[in-house]
Amino acid sequence: MWQYRLGDRTLDLSGRTLVMGILNRTPDSFFDHGETFELDPFLRRAEQLVVDGADLLDVGGVKAGPGPEVTEAEELDRVVGPIAMLAARFDAAISVDTWRASVLDAACEAGAVVGNDISGFGDPEYLAVAARREASVVATHIRLQPRVPDPEPHYDDLVADVRDFLVARAEAAERAGLAPEQIALDAGLDLGKTPAQSAVLLRESEVLATLGYTLLLSASNKRFLGELLELEIDQRRDASLVTTAYGVAHGCRIVRVHDVAGSVRVCRMVEAILERSAAEVRGR
Do 119 and 97 meet the contact criterion of CB atoms below 8 Å apart? Predict the structure, then answer.
């Protein structure tokens, strides 16, 4: 049921979860506060993520939340050259965290094979570029737009509204020429959601996992974990690993994380539990 294409490889994710390591080329990211903005620490971090077992390296040049404007030229400068360096050094697949079609295009030319778009394909050229480049995409739910504050989000039916939004985006991607195995869905935790709403969407992951597309979970160190448990950013590792375990057990097949080593261990353990349970059922 679950397949996802990374370049010239189509992976069967029915019993395996891909771990996507986060690589920020931003001076103001909420988690590392610019720790990997400079090129040398960025490359060292990439190498560590690969050693730790990352299947994908997700490179972003603009943070999702409010902050100083980042022009198209600045974003291109932040991500395209580094993606080319990663492609030359590592076997891990590369995704680009951008909502700009022009950045996706240049990133694919440099070696990226996935466009991770938190805007829900707000750029009308995004899907056309992905189709032409034969890139896979991530369709993310967001209520407003990236970088726009949304302090009091309201939904008539939270899970149904998110589901319908993502189905519409997946259908648009298919109309643009992408195959189902090139499309992943992301509920967009913290993007136009209260902490409680994000927790509900995580809890109901199986609803989105049964839509016929790979489900991506991006919960690592996010605000909803901190607010629900009163944890500072540097205290959220255990909570993040718990969300990974829960997500994988309930159908998520890509996890976007800061702690790759810990997440790989969690994913393999949950996969082993699920496989053992299935084997025992088959043996009865």
Answer: no
Whole-angstrom Cα distance, residue 65 to residue 191?
Answer: 9
Average of pLDDT values for 237-254? 98
Q: Which of 169, 150, 264, 148 is nearest to 211 (CA)?
A: 169
Residues 73-116: tens digit of each pLDDT: 999 999 999 999 999 999 999 999 999 999 999 999 999 999 99
Please spell the DSSP secondary structure of 45-56, one letter per residue: HHHHHHHHT-SE
> Which residues are known to be catalytic?
222, 256
Give the CA count within 13 Å in the CB-facing half-sphere of 121: 27
pLDDT attached to residue 281: 60
Q: Helix H segments across the chain?
A: 39-52, 72-89, 101-110, 126-133, 158-175, 195-203, 205-209, 223-229, 237-249, 260-282
Q: Is 144 helix (H, G, I), strand (E, B) or coil?
A: coil
State in Å, rounded, how far the first CA of the chain is from the last one: 24
